[in-house]
Fold each of these.
Amino acid sequence: MTGFNVLGMRLRQAVCENWILDGVSVTSALEHLGEAVFDPELFSKHENAIVTAWNEANPAQRITLKKKRGLYGVFQFLNLQKA
Amino acid sequence: MNKLNILKTIRFAGILFFMISMFIFIFVVSYSSFYVTEDIIRESVTEEHHLAAILPMAEQVTGKTYDSKREIISDLTGIMEKADEGLSNDEKMWSYSQGVYRMNIMKKSVTGFLPGNEFLFLWQTIIAGCIAALMFILPGYWLRRPGIDNDGVYHRSVSNRGWIGITLGFMLVAFYIFIYWYPEYIVNWIILVDPISMAISGNPASQWFLYGVLYTLAILVMGVRMLIRYRHSNYHLVRTGSVMFFQLGFAFLLPEILVALNKPYYDFKDLWPLNYDFFYGWQIDQFLQSGSLGMFMLLSGIGLSLVGVPVLTYFYGKRWYCSWVCGCGGLAETLGDPFRHLSDKTLKAWKAERWIVHGVLVLVVVMTLATLINYFSGYQLLGNLTQQLQQWYGFFIGAAFAGVIGVGFYPWMGSRVWCRFGCPLAAYLGLVQRFKSRFRITTNGGQCISCGNCSTYCEMGIDVRWYAQRGQNIIRSSCVGCGICASVCPRGVLRLENGPEEGRFNEPAAFDLSEDKVKVNF
Ligand code: SF4
Ligand code: SF4
């Protein structure tokens, strides 16, 4: 993972930054996309559509969306990175 | 004609029709011709002993045509004052009943074009006004694309303290002054809504019913505008729908239905300390005398104020009330939306705000405690001191601040003057939000481009940009969570969130630059 083009979606900068620093793979980032979502509350979610599109384009590297861990998970992830 | 021109023509016609109905509305109220008869007095004065005291003097007002409201008001007041002199303290009408009787006598003795044509004029003024406003608002669905568009707010007279805005402000102030202190002068308007009141509760309308009708219509019609304007955002659609629902259902219809069922007039969502008379003696007596429903009202009111408010604010921030439920907030978020950018963002305003709003909170707590002590001691301890406190509070805070300034100053100081500077419930919710809550507006790292849109459109006068530039979360007691700052941000920097308390007050992040990267300290 070297950079992002989020096409108008809003992603959480701190999460994205950590992904880049950690050099996580595209598949892992996609699987955990829920953690980076920064769209306003009550907006429709796009993670499923993105993962489905990925799977259609890359049948060899099928991924499944990890359940969104909620804000608490996001903060845990960020604190883990800091420590 | 193409579609665009048709829509623009409809808009223009809407403005025209609105002006016409406003004109008729003002014409209706300015017309005065009264003819009082003894029968009218008999019908209007409902207490036997009051009637007995008034009737001997009835001749002074009956049998002649009054062409001025001032004259008939002063004559009616004259005979009632006289009548009161002959009555013992327990029997007196005092100014309250005098006002009710005077209003009812005047309503029935209006002559001229109005009697018999109430529906026609209701249609020509209030209903036509709403239709005209919707003719202006609805084409916006096709004329504006979804998304934020604030072009020209500082170039329009109405939204930039121009002459239209200032005129509107004066009219609102005048309207509130009449409603609170001179309702007899707008008796013709009250006659217009009489049929509606009779249909809902079976009682003739008072000035408060007129006020409720206009207030609710303002929220509904301008709510439609909000729904169109922010239709790209589910957050705004849901919360606008919510305030419209609570105003129509809980604030307007339910209390009237309760009255129709012979139950106390009560708005379940109007919480103490905003609803400052909740603990007044007469109110508590009324609850206690109304059986299990009255008990439920009393307990739900206390429970919501003392437990519901802190718990819900802990989980969602004060927005659950201020921009989803409250009537004052509802008006600010609908009728007030075109004026939101007029709020004062200076540090001086913030300092004044904290003194004033917390001062009102202290005042209302002291007044309520004194009232309760007095109530439970059988009015032995403090005599009529509490009554005077209540009168002062009702006059200065309840009427002058919340009504006249709170709404009348929309076009001058923005839509949340009362919520920001005066509302004791907002102060209480704010204390919880500031010190013990999961709510915050998260700033997304170093993405802010310092455009200042967020601060401009914050109706509470919070300098959101100051936080965003520093990469710091916005945690302010005054934030009502309207979510507009997040919507107007061109970079999507801000997000309203309910998260774990830990890490809520983050360190400012965006300024931490080093040679090879922007470092974000979380
Ligand atoms: S800070 Fe944002 S959400 Fe809070 S009151 Fe201001 S504009 Fe609304
Ligand atoms: S609107 Fe967004 S980009 Fe503009 S100053 Fe506010 S946070 Fe920064």
Amino acid sequence: MREEVEVLIIGAGISGLAIAYSLQKRGVKDILILDESYIGAGSTGRCATGIRASFTSKEHVVLMKHSIDLWKKYAAGELGRAGLYYDQSGYVWVATRDESAEFFEKLAKLHNSLGVNTKIIGIDELKELVPPMKVDGVAGAMFDPTAGKSYPFDTIFAFLKLVKGRGAEVVTRVKVTKILTSSGKVTGVEVEGGKIIKASTVVVAAGSGSRELLGSVGVKLPIENIPRHALITEPYKEAFKPLVIDWDTPGVPYIVQSKEGGFFMGRDVEEKPELPLTSQRIDFMPKAVKPLTKFFPWLRNIRVLRYWVGYYVTTPDHHPVYGPVKEVEGLYIAAGYSGHGYMMGPITGELLAEWILNRKPHIPEAERLTLDRFERGALIKELAVIG
Amino acid sequence: MPGTPPLKDRRIWEHPILTFKRGRRVKFYFNGNIVEGYEGESIAAALYAARYDVFSRSPYKGRARGAFCMIGKCSSCFAIVDGVPNTRTCVEPIREGVKVEFQEGLAEIPSATGGLEGKDEEVIEGVDVLVIGGGPAGLAAAIAAAKHGLSVLIVNEHFKLGGQLIKQTHKFFGSKDLFGGLRGFQVAEELENKVRSMRNVRVLLQATAYGFFRDGWVGVAGKDRLYRVKPRFVIAAPGAAERHLAFPGNDLPGVMGAGGAQTLMNEYGILPGDEVLVVGSGNVGVIVSYQLLQAGAKVKGIVEILPYIGAWFVHAAKIRRYGVKVYTRHTIKEVWGKDRVEGATIVRVDEHFKPVPGSETDIPCDLVLIAVGLTPDTRLLAQAGAVVTWVPELGGLVPIRTKYLETSVPGLFIAGDASGIEEATTAMIEGEIAGLSAVVRAGADDAGNAAERREALLKFLWDEYRASPVVARAKAGKLKVTVSEDEMERIRVSNPPPVRFGS
Ligand SMILES: Cc1cc2nc3c(=O)[nH]c(=O)nc-3n(C[C@H](O)[C@H](O)[C@H](O)COP(=O)(O)OP(=O)(O)OC[C@H]3O[C@@H](n4cnc5c(N)ncnc54)[C@H](O)[C@@H]3O)c2cc1C
Ligand SMILES: Cc1cc2nc3c(=O)[nH]c(=O)nc-3n(C[C@H](O)[C@H](O)[C@H](O)COP(=O)(O)OP(=O)(O)OC[C@H]3O[C@@H](n4cnc5c(N)ncnc54)[C@H](O)[C@@H]3O)c2cc1C
Ligand code: FES
């Protein structure tokens, strides 16, 4: 492992890898990425694979639209040849209450005004999109045709291959314990065991480990690591394409079929932040699956293959923290996606690369997402915090 | 039924030492064709007997899939059973009229709900000991705990109790205490009778413990419902799985675990093949060869990568008498055939175990048995958060434990193959020790007697039984992973257990 490097990135999830990729495209060669675990061990390998722009804040919508454009561009290029893909299969939102159906109409209007062509669909269209769905009791539905999915391990291994191919060093099983500074400037990091690695630029893309890392230089990052549960069933022939959201059940359960054919399901159940990921709960499976059996009764016959927990690294306003940390020169952050940082991966890479190379980000909305917004009290609102 | 001729297929009707007790004749369907079998057989066994070798095709390459392990550990025997795809047919009993269908790659989502509607999870609280696995280890544990008044729930993935004992046809060594003089399946019967006679033991068959959860819940997936169990103690005895080797064609039906073949032949009385090549000349490989010869098959050879036969002399002598060829310094290169093994290519190896080009030999056969050892099934224990470590002498990953068989998850004990591969007698002794440990920890009325008995068993196990030089390797392995109570406390500090039992 090198002892001195130009840019040191902490975390080899989608954020860290995408940042390295975008930096390389802009000519930065000397990059070291450290991860305390294996590739994909963080939230990236545990996520629900969903990608969409149908959010409610302008910042999210604009950034996600850019990100989706990049997903498509990347899938069509060298990353695509290395395995990354974007399956534009859409999101379907289903309501069982009339009030929610009305809310969908408002939401669709808002999305449309921001340039996302979400639309209200009728029962027939719903049946066409999701053939094996029992539609009794459905009061309304909405479809986002730009949304889609992709498999996180295909994505990060594609990034990893290209990033390494261009000379970045990626070292796993090395935990960064401290960020080192001298007179207000970053000088490097210390890793477990006491070794020091010098770097003039340090990027914290460490997911649930980010708060502690910033804490080591006295900077407060207002995030909580909230355990989120997910499961996948045994594989079946493709039954439907979109991700389906059961909007009116508390905790908003959702279901999507993976490329291998397994049905991925999740639901927000109340959890104490910071519980270890090994703290699994037996009631999650019925909690997630049972409400969905009203639409998909055949789920009762399907076995769950795997169940796991990952963190939603959550900020008070459910938007990520991006860009330079103003207290320490040379220190950057990209964390706190609050449950939708996989889809943001490509745009995260571009924005951080622009900041690091001393340019302003090309999307003005991104500048509202820096860490100092919490001090300034300039929080942003988001209503649709789901998969 | 008088007048009904026995089914003539792969079933064995004449055997020099065994007679097979077969149940009532049962009719069921495979792809609409009527298949007959005998009650007590698994679907996989009955199909195999009727010369159906292929039950499904793989999702991606459409490769033929049939039986391999016959004990529920490998998932190669999938078929659609009464409309439910991905059913492991080797742990599903035949029933009159059951409809089995070939599964072509990934299945369509099921249209039926399989009668599961309205069957909620059953919550079982207040049971003293949950025993996972009804093999010799689990049964011995259950008996020991129940004898001292604890309430016990046994969950067993297979539809029969007894685990691997059922296929063991040799007589046990040792004293009557240790079932000396009985054959394995008779030991299984005795243990089962004992367990069934105890009012404080409940048994769930076809029930798989699938995970450990927050607050000490254990999930169990039953045949047609889920159970949520909150026990005071857990004894895990889920056994072992057979190892496999990597070579082209290793997934072809007719390539089978040696234990899988033993299940067919010794438990169900079904001849697994006519012309057999066995890979591995350890005790299992050699014993299974001998059993095949007795059952009427032809053993074309035994392949052994080392320069010598691994089995004990007594076993090796038996096959030598039959003139079976042992290919030492050889390995398997490839298996060929369309939808069923038609032959295998073996190859000589040099002193670095590298194949020597040009030294290949083709051996026509219809069955290739892999007898290269077992690996402890510790998946569930690792999920529970028990600290595991790699011990080659014990077959792979095993949990670190105290001499009382407690893992780093407090109140979770292990016994039998899952604690490291040995054999059935040790499995029963370990089972009893684990059961008594639960009794002692529960502070039952006669905990003092239980503790005394436990010390006596430990002394016997370590100083007498494992003193034999033939088990020196396993003993060394077990010594490596047995730690003091103090050391275990330190391990718990650095690896905080996600669940705890025993309070
Ligand atoms: C159940 C679930 C479902 C989700 N569904 C979606 C979805 O559908 N769509 C979506 O866009 N997002 C989803 N998310 C959120 C998404 O997974 C994350 O926002 C995203 O993966 C964040 O990527 P990252 O690279 O920033 O962080 P991570 O993938 O967490 O990577 C951070 C890496 O940093 C390493 N690290 C941490 N601390 C240190 C240290 N001190 N030293 C060295 N290395 C360190 C970790 O090992 C880890 O590999 C979901 C999350 C969960 C848990
Ligand atoms: C294929 C094979 C052949 C063998 N042949 C011999 C032999 O000839 N002679 C000899 O001395 N030893 C033999 N052994 C060694 C074997 O170690 C012992 O004989 C003994 O059977 C081990 O006992 P056990 O109770 O630990 O496991 P097993 O006898 O394997 O019993 C385990 C039981 O647990 C059940 N189970 C597994 N997982 C779960 C779960 N998650 N939930 C619920 N139930 C579960 C299984 O269905 C099974 O009934 C063999 C082992 C195997 C695997
Ligand atoms: S699981 Fe049935 S043969 Fe292995």
Amino acid sequence: MPKIMVDGKSIDCKPGQMILQACLDHGIVMPYYCYHPGLSIVASCRICLVEVEGIPKLVPACQTPVREGMVVHASSSKAIANQKAVMEYLLINHPLDCPVCDQAGECYLQDYSYQYGRSESRFEEEKHKKPKKDVGQHVLLYNDRCIMCSRCVRFTREISGGGELYVQGRGAREEIDIFPGRPLDNKLSGNVVDICPVGALLDKDFLFKQRVWLLKQAASVSPVDSGGENIYLDYNEGVIYRIKPRYNGEVNQWWISDDTRYSYKIVRDPRRVVQPMRMQYGSQIETTYDRALEMAAGGLQQVVATGKAGSLYAVLSPMMACEEAWLLGQYMRRLDPKALLVLGPVLGKGEDEVFCNSLTGKQTFVIKGEKVPNAKGVRRVMEKLGGPTATFEEFVKGDRAEVKEVKGGWIVGGYLGDWVPKDLPAGMKKGFRVMQDILPTVLAGAVEVVLPGAAWAEKEGCWENHQGRLQAFEAAVVPPVGCRREGDVYMNLLGRAGLYNGAGIRKEMGEPFESVRAPVAREEEAAFEFVEL
Amino acid sequence: MKDTEIIELQEPRLSVADQFYVPQMLVGMGTTLKHMFMTLTGKDRVIQYPEEKREDIPVVEGGMNLRTYRGVHRLNKDEGGRVKCVACFMCSTACPAHCIHIEAGESPWADREKYPIQFDIDELRCIYCGMCEEACPVDAIELTHEYDIVGLTRQEMIFDKEKLLKMYDQTVEKEPM
Ligand code: SF4
Ligand code: SF4
Ligand code: SF4
Ligand code: FES
């Protein structure tokens, strides 16, 4: 463990670590643009230069490995003079766009300008204005705001592997560009917006929607596949505006797929089911939630009273949180101790999509082919509950004795698209069916009771990803009027007091659910001192 | 909504005098009587609104100081007659009453990036503090001297972009930008 001194503070570093990373790990603030822990090091922006005793010139902290006994002066007058000079250089051609720039508020250039820059410009000549470009399906490039850190170029070469972006021209005329006819259209393209330290690369979807300082964050998990990418839901006044990656070294690192990034749209989808329905004389009519719930409970009890044990089933969707599956399972088993628990369809058995570094060929990111987030978790809950269970395939085939017996049940959807299979299983075709879903399906139009459910961003719980990691997520917004969170519905049916609370339910579920930690919200970023104007 | 977003407020505690009610009532009565005598001796001035208006009276006699008076907002226009606002949300961020609602969009003009598609100010919620005016980087929002605005419904008192631009046309002669 090499020890180094930074501005009189002694820190322990890992061997071979760069000075900058060692400082960041120990909470020492240092400016940097081109350095990104997930990308190769180019040391091109030069704002991180520091003084090291024994070396006559300033060295880039991001590219200088630590050495035992190294003495670093990060805020010596030489280092500060360099920071000021770099800032002044970067701002020579940078437009004064902050009021209309989407990055304002989370912009490195803005922050460092306050911290390390000067308040007025000495540049009297005309600024060189570079063009604005549409580089891909999701991404816009405002070249005049670019500081040529080349993070985006390195990302497309080293992580997404397509190498769509490159540096064109030289010196002051240098700019980022795409090759003719080859737009930035890979499934990780949105990440370049996150890593761009300034407002040069912007997301078309978020463009002009909100100012970032108005957004609040909820820590969540991606609902689109079994990868379990960690995300933040950025919301304001009950509306989610965007999704940003949440660092998790063992799952998604700094990146998320574009499917995850735009999955929040389901929350405000105009197709959302918001009206509880019940069947009367062979056709569905609108009803209140309480009336629908009463009818659901009554109908299921009726089925149990008239049939024998094992006549109830529940289709537990792999979109449900483990806690919800647990509560619904308990309710069904209370009505009918032999109730059949079926894992809903696990969509997308397709191949995983693998991304590789185009230079080294090393695998960098995988988008899972299984397009549901919690198949593993719901299976685990079903095992915990014990009793008869079936997979959806067995349920569809219908040749097992338990499957033939069923007379009515509870079906949970919650998928992000249409999920009802063409050949509906015999059990789901008839009998008394209660359905909880967020999008309309053919099945929802035919069942006895429809209960509008909540999307994942509207509730809390935990999901198990393909690696077997149980990851908890928080709610960001409340469900639309007319919808209720699944957890609350089950608590109500079970006659339990209070509202559904993920952490509380996990406690009673026992291991391994008990020890699932609540997600950690973003740590306070290094506080910037404000300059008195 | 998370627990951290909930703000709990405590009701202020009543002092003993407050609880007895009568002493506080007498204090109020005293103020009223003081002003009554001051009017009789000519030290206070009663303005016969609306025949007489404060803006027509000299400031020393209790008239309105037009240099600092803050009334209804207007949205300024540039030389081309286009709305000056660039939809930066600085005013709505600064507004302590949270009464400015903006929806931004791509501007139809080549020389500008962003402009407000919708710009609403709830004039009933506004406390006329002028923070929005201070915050604006392009001097697009201003408080005029107009105060006698009326409406039959609350909805009418939510001024939209058109109404705010019309305010500009109505007041620009009297109060140039
Ligand atoms: S577009 Fe952004 S990430 Fe790419 S070089 Fe410019 S500043 Fe860096
Ligand atoms: S005057 Fe004050 S309260 Fe009224 S809109 Fe402006 S900032 Fe808000
Ligand atoms: S501060 Fe000025 S430019 Fe910005 S949104 Fe408000 S009125 Fe428009
Ligand atoms: S961060 Fe070290 S040179 Fe850019």
Amino acid sequence: MSSEWPLWEVFIRGQHGLNHRHVGSLHAPDAEVAIKHARDVYTRRNEGVSIWVVKSVYIAASSPSDKGPLFEPSNDKVYRHPTFYDIPDEIGHM
Amino acid sequence: MYAQLVKSEGTSREDMSPEEIAFQGRIDRNEKIEPKEWMPEGYRKTLIRQIGQHAHSEIVGQLPEGNWITRAPTLERKQILLAKVQDEAGHGLYLYCAAETLGVSRDELLERLHSGDMKYSSIFNYPTLTWADMGAVGWLVDGAAIMNQVPLQRTSYGPYSRAMIRICKEESFHQRQGYAIMMKMANGTPAQKKMAQDALNRLWYPSLMMFGPSDKDSVHSAQSMAWKIKMNTNDELRQKFVDQTVPQAEYLGLTVPDPDLKWNEEKGGYDFSEPDWDEFYQVLKGNGPCNKERLGARVKAWEDGAWYRDAMVAHAKKKASRRPVAAE
Ligand SMILES: [Fe+2]
Ligand SMILES: [Fe+2]
């Protein structure tokens, strides 16, 4: 078997000004072809106006076993949410 | 269905390790399992088999329809069919990527398809003889696929579930364009109507086979259902498919080729004849009408494309060595 094309992660920004969003991955020999493939595979129905691709090997990810220590610190900080504060109805929407 | 007879490897509840018990607990709470998280080896292997088989079905499934692209009756029909076949290529690619997150490479999966070690859906080993078959395939085959894929959007494995969500969004066009062809043919000349009836006659039972063997003979279901990589039993989905499809056939003025088909008020569904399961196993074994042709076309495409894949790698390497900064 000949050498396999490397894997790329694909990020697409849709029409409405939202962030680029991860949509999946694909194989391509280089970035230029990866973008072309991404267009064919992930935007056949106007799903996007901008494409980012990055080689999958360059993605650093948090480890699933760190889920606790990584995310727990924000669990007990209820005062970060607007609903923590009682504002009288007379004040109106705030 | 697209994944028929996937062998499932699990441990019985009594033999489960504490890790496996915790894992099953997560699934029972409808948590999604993501690529790098701990999973039982059997779960991983069964998923590779199932997602791989599903991906292969999408790819091989392009062949019976691709067969008619150059012979479509109008330019519009040609464009539609081309778009549909292109979608199926996309579906295959989404699914290969999902399988790759389980630690198997796409080339490896393709090799296992080409060597006959991995299967694809039995339905694609039947020929598409007339233009009406393009209608019947979209209506019945994509219809059966949708039946199976919609519940799989809720499957426990994150990447598989996300691939299914994408695929389901695109499938309804497939079924509708097929039914539109059937409407045209069924309301056309007597010869066209006859072609439509003939397509239904030939594809009805192979479509019912897509859901896999009857529940009483389906050995691997229980574990896969516990893992939520199978959401319904084969017979449940087959019944749903028949109940949905029979009125659609009636609307076309066509006859489902089953003399024993009749509405059963009590169960709120149709009674119908099972397909010929001997034929099903024969097709799976490689003895269907088109097995050799389909796999042969796949292998040929792969081998004929080798020079292109290699050239693209060589070109990318050369470019990278010329512009070291932009390279990596
Ligand atoms: Fe598909
Ligand atoms: Fe489809």
